[in-house]
TrEMBL record:
Identification of the protein by name: MerR family transcriptional regulator
GO MF annotation: an example: DNA-binding transcription factor activity
Organism domain of life: Bacteria
Keywords assigned: Coiled coil, DNA-binding
Gene3D superfamilies linked: 1.10.1660.10
Residue intervals of the HTH merR-type domain: 10-79, 124-193
Coiled coil spans: 76-103, 187-214
SMART domains: HTH_MERR
Organism (species): Deinococcus phoenicis
Length: 238
């Protein structure tokens, strides 16, 4: 499978800095903070990809337009890198499956998909209990829902019900705001990426499982095909 052209390191630091209107020293700082991950040439020269340029522009947007502090930017970019890595893992998995399909190798045993909801996503806590679990006021939880930082479920009677995953998200929001001093705009960006990452991971894992099941089905079909007839059967001697 061809490598994403956006990941190809092509720009030296002076060109990259000019493209994003930053000083080269700023790019070095962002690399030390692990906000970007430039490649290296054989001579150890930093080389930046189109994806690095996109990330640098996103950092500038967060800091200059939204006023997000560096701690918040670090959280955003960590999640963005996780998304990038997940996509790379998915592509590698697809390539492995394609190789297996070409070689007609015996497929691994696969658990039957049952479509059950992840227990962490089961809505169980009413708002008063959820607020107590995360040491927040219920009104704060309603605010975070309006900002789409969390997405509680609803009972048949339209009562808000929070899952274990919602509780994790609320604790993460508290960490970002109280421990790291990230403003609400930064928290919105971080939680949007968290939701995107979780959805992408579930979607990609589902696609991989479907491909594996398709491979298993193909292998079963090939094994049950009738053997080809042999030419040149031996005749009885006269």
């Amino acid at each position: 499978m061809a490598t994403d052209s956006k990941q190809r390191p092509v720009y030296v630091i002076s060109v990259a800095a000019e493209l994003v209107d930053m000083h080269p020293q700023t790019l070095r700082l962002y690399e030390r903070k692990q906000l970007i991950r430039p490649g290296r040439s054989s001579g150890k020269t930093r080389l930046y990809s189109e994806r690095d340029i996109e990330h640098l522009r996103e950092i500038r947007r967060l800091t200059q337009e939204l006023g997000v502090n560096l701690a918040g930017v670090e959280e955003v970019m960590r999640l963005q890198h996780e998304l990038d890595d997940l996509q790379g893992e998915f592509e590698a998995e697809i390539e492995s499956i394609e190789d297996e399909l070409r070689e007609r190798a015996a497929p691994p045993a696969l658990p039957a998909p049952d479509g059950r909801l992840d227990p962490k996503d089961r809505p169980v806590y009413v708002i008063s209990i959820a607020a107590e679990l995360v040491d927040m006021h219920p009104q704060t939880l309603r605010l975070y829902e309006r900002k789409q930082l969390i997405r509680p479920g609803r009972s048949s009677g339209k009562t808000r019900l929070y899952s274990e995953r919602d509780i994790e998200h609320l604790r993460e929001i508290r960490r970002l705001t109280q421990e790291l001093g990230v403003n609400l705009a930064g928290v919105e960006e971080i939680m949007r990426l968290r939701h995107q990452l979780e959805a992408a991971r579930a979607h990609l894992e589902g696609n991989v499982q479907r491909l594996q099941q398709d491979l298993a089905g193909r292998m079963t079909s090939w094994r049950t095909l009738p053997a080809p007839e042999q030419d040149g059967d031996t005749e009885d001697a006269g």
